[in-house]
């Protein structure tokens, strides 16, 4: 099966499971907690979870799917809280939870999803011992995500963020939840410790590369294509890998922190391309994917392993 | 050992364990997460956890103390988020986390403690199966607490809150975490299912009664004694059991929603006492404690059982 079809099928499955778990909210708070969760999303974390589980034990993901939902629910909890912190009004084409219900209810809605994430892992049909390890990993991951978000916010007041600091931030903010998705799939399917570790590292790397690709898309993709404001990171002076690489090459991006016309964005892209900034950033992301894919050598040759390879490259080949 | 000495000893133990777990914060976010946790507190939930554990299996609490900390950490996570929602500036005589670090960091600080709570349960030295049950109970409890806080906030816009709604709210907002503290102690010490259930109900009842006593203290205790603003609930028109009982008895408290002198508060208390409001509310709390204590019949006669009885009465006999 091709990756695209696999992702579509998983998204449908996840949506239907979420519907059966939470489709009948009894309270206003449950409605607020459901809002973003039911507003779509690519459901990439459950897909990664399933692939990792079935790669180590064919067919095993079916029994443990509640844990796959747990990772999607965790992701949505972090988005609700992030949107409050970042004062974002829209997400997935819908108004954000705090915009609709107010900040206090949005804090609680995120907290409700946080609880549900742990409830769901407990519901997986798996031996108790790996379940406890999976729960401990999810808890550690949530703490890392908080650290990543805090670092990201602290970067807004700095001009001197280093490459290593940036990579640590994206790994924590985005990578570790992909790492956990893969590792928890392996754990609950009773893979070996080296498989758990390798798949965790694979997930962290493709997640971090995903974020770098997001930064590239922000600069390169037209608003028509991405649905987002082109070059907003540059205008806002955000410390992305593009900005950091430019600084390393002696390019001052501060003059570009202002409203930019399409032509100006085009000439900015040309300049960054000529100076080798774009290719350097693309290279970094590609190296992460290459390294992630190499780590899959702990897996036997299965359809799922091939899909994991495809998924890794998809993370940096998508253009919106 | 008397209850007071037991609570003092447990608080010291909890403070020292927290120090060894989190005493050396490496990041600004960890500092924010530690702030309230290290600002004291009575540590009643770990004390209840220990008593319940040792009541079913003497000496067992020592092995599972991380889970006792988990309940204190959970409590502190909810306080940090509640303080943001309620815009409170002080707690435990110190500035609140959001006042010192800002709301975004305070949301994250609460989220970090939330993660730590689940990490800590995983660290308890207990069989895996009850551990998973304990984690599932903690997750359910966190969801209940969120519902309770949401109900409490929604009551602010209502004048018609019923006795049952109030009791459901305080049970969720305050009771269930005491219920979990006791039940998780029993679970991890491998008590019977009927002991788990009885101790959960015991904790829910004494926790709800604790909240009712808080409402009584708000009205009856002088500011000198309680350190809080006397009769603030009445002035703010809060739907407490006192306000609900008064309404049931045809007493209109709306004229008292204004700054009140000491003499006015004294005559308000006299009036509510004469009309039987105070005794009715005290009665309700006493009945809850009586019922909670009756539930302890599932326990053998031990020092810990006696302390659990004392603890229950202490919850409504404290006067500040």
Structural commentary:
2 copies of one chain form a homodimer. The first copy, chain A, is an all-alpha fold and 320 residues long. Chain A has a single domain (3-317), classed as Orthogonal Bundle (Farnesyl Diphosphate Synthase), CATH 1.10.600. In chain A, 73% of the residues lie in helices and 1% in strands. Chain A is built from 15 helices and 2 strands. A two-stranded antiparallel sheet of chain A has the order 1-2. In chain A, helix 9 (193-220) runs antiparallel to helix 14 (277-294) and helix 9 runs parallel beside helix 15. The longest helix of chain A is centred in the middle third of the chain and has 28 residues, at 128-155. The interface between A and B is large, with 39 and 39 residues. Chains A, B: GO terms for molecular function: metal ion binding; prenyltransferase activity. Chains A, B: Belongs to the FPP/GGPP synthase family.
